């Protein structure tokens, strides 16, 4: 047997000798005796589970409460015009692929070439001028001021004609 092996065996025996049984469990024995004298504990019954009726959300296909109401009275509805219609041959601009509601005006720029509106939406801030198109309903910017951008959209009236709908995108302060 080598000296290292002998030394490690002696170290192991000295460590294990410290793990011997000790009779210093008087407090634990007293506690266990007290618990045995009390008898089995009382377990409270589990609470009664009340089931609730299932709720099905059915308003997903209804009009958004944040959109303006559309009149269903045929007499009160505006009649569309066959003179107003979107140009199907026009090349679409990038911002026409997004809803106009997601854009907010954050400022304006002016230089010698004209005034520009800064609109945030569609993943960035975009510089637009009068005549640019915006939104999915052929919205064309008709005016830019320091407080708002005026847009006119062309929407179907539901009877084969088209309506011009004015929209305003107000300046969002503290943006």
From TrEMBL:
InterPro entries (UniProt xref): PilP
Keywords, in A-Z order: Signal
Iron as UniProt keyword: no
Name of the molecule in the record: Pilus assembly protein PilP
Taxonomic lineage: Bacteria, Pseudomonadati, Pseudomonadota, Gammaproteobacteria, Pseudomonadales
Signal peptide coordinates: 1-21
Taxonomic source organism: Pseudomonas laurylsulfativorans
Gene3D superfamilies the UniProt entry points to: 2.30.30.830
Region annotation (Disordered) ranges: 67-87
């Amino acid at each position: 047997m080598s000296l290292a092996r002998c030394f490690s065996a002696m170290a192991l025996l000295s460590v294990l000798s410290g793990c011997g049984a000790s009779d210093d469990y008087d407090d634990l024995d007293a506690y266990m005796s007290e618990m045995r004298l009390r008898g089995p504990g009382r377990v409270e019954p589990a609470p009664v589970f009340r089931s609730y009726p299932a709720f099905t959300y059915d308003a997903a296909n209804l009009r958004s409460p944040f959109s303006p109401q559309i009149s269903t009275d045929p007499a009160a509805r505006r009649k569309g015009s066959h003179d107003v219609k979107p140009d199907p041959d026009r090349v679409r601009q990038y911002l026409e692929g997004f809803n106009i509601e997601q854009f907010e005006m954050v400022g304006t720029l002016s230089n010698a070439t004209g005034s520009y509106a800064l609109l945030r939406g569609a993943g960035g801030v975009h510089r637009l001028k009068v005549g640019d198109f915006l939104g999915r309903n052929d919205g064309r910017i008709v005016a830019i001021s320091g407080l708002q951008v005026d847009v006119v959209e062309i929407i179907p009236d539901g009877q084969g004609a088209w309506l011009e709908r004015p929209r305003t995108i107000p300046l969002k302060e503290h943006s």
